[in-house]
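Page 37, top half.
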Amino acid sequence: MLKIEDLSVKVADHNILKEFNLSIADGEVHAIMGPNGTGKSTLSKVIMGSHEYEILSGKIIFNDEDISALDVDERSRKGIFLAMQTPISIEGVTNSEFLRTALNARQSEPIALFDFIKTMESNMKDLDMKNDIVHKAINEGSSGGERKKNEVLQIKVLKPSFIILDEVDSGLDVDSLRIVCENINKYRQENPNTSILIITHYSRILEYIKPDYVHMMVDGKIVKTGDYNFAFEIDKSGYSELVNE
């Protein structure tokens, strides 16, 4: 589904990604762990098409198409979704307005209002969200946990085929993490070809969403890859000891 070939990226005068390579097949879950400042969040934003970053070389291939020059909205309509580390609030736009507009942009026919309301109510119930959130501005006055649940609500409504979870576990208490992960796993069961890239510092989210591969990223590139158990090896040994190996 996703193939990144020799991708080098800079922001301002700093080279962040350095000949980065990664391949993710349909239905696979990959996790990336690494020290602060190594380029993990940069990777997520570059895949999504942020204009903050300049691609120096390399390609981003999605479903056999080079999307390196596409805008964010074009990548979104192709099925890519980024659940952000720090979701922002947007005044004057309600969750309902935002999601219905975004959903209609993906369909040849607009969704009927009754069907949309049913979809929202069902998904909010799954996420243990308050019903009045649909009428509030996006993330306005919301806690960190509520904002992360709102990201997952967007996933469940918009139905992307490739999901990037950028530290979705940060700021979540035990119950909220469980609810978020249960909903992502349920989405995967209903959409088995969906691929996921998890960016995290901690192995606890990987106990809920079990990855096929765990990559350790250092200084803008992947330096070591293992299976699910590699995440716990990182927790135990730390990055510096594993790099020295």
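Page 37, bottom half:
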Amino acid sequence: MTDAIFSEAFVKELEAEVTATRKCLERIPESLFDWKPHEKSMTMGYLALLVAEIPKWITHMIEKSEIDFASFEHFKPTNAAELVAHFDENVKGAKKALSLIKEGELAEPFSLKNQGKLLYSSPKKENIESTINHMVHHRGQLTVYMRLNNIPVPAIYGPSADDRGF
């Protein structure tokens, strides 16, 4: 298959996850940004930000061919509306970057670094695939945080107990 076909498929897969992800992010109150279920867990605010920023990773993979943990800038939302707007901006950027992929580009390497030190490198195609899955994984984690705080969980792949009134 060509890079254009994969790019189109990645855009469709990303779009399929956007609505449910946005619904989750909209429901995270800033009063719970510092909440976490366990001392080893990340805070709800950081987890929500992670979900909102994962599409930005796709843009970096395509346009910059690397992400360095030390220099990757994180947005600092103060409320759910800013978080959702950031997510929407990141999705828009990822879709644009995907639409501009040239033939052969998905075979080029993407590198993950920390303070310039290479952690791993593999083809962009593999990383884009796993990044969309990564977003879905963390969105699932976020729904558990939501449930533990009595925040209604939206329907994702079918009705949730909150949507059905259970």
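Margin note: The domain at 3-148 is CATH 1.20.120.450 (Four Helix Bundle (Hemerythrin (Met), subunit A)).
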